[in-house]
Amino acid sequence: RARVAIVSTGDEVVPPDTAVLSAGQVRDATASALAGLVHDAGGEPVAAGIVPDDRDALEATLRAAIAGADLVVVSAGSSVGSRDETAGAVAALGEIWCHGLAVKPGKPTLLAECAGVPLIGLPGNPLSALVVFRLVGVPLVWRLAGCDAPPAEPTVRARLGRDLASAAGRLDVVQVAVRDGVAEPLFGPSALLSVLARADGYLVVPEAATGLDGGADVEVILYR
Question: Which residue from 55, 87, 99, 138 has the least number of CB within 10 angstroms?
Answer without folding.
Answer: 55
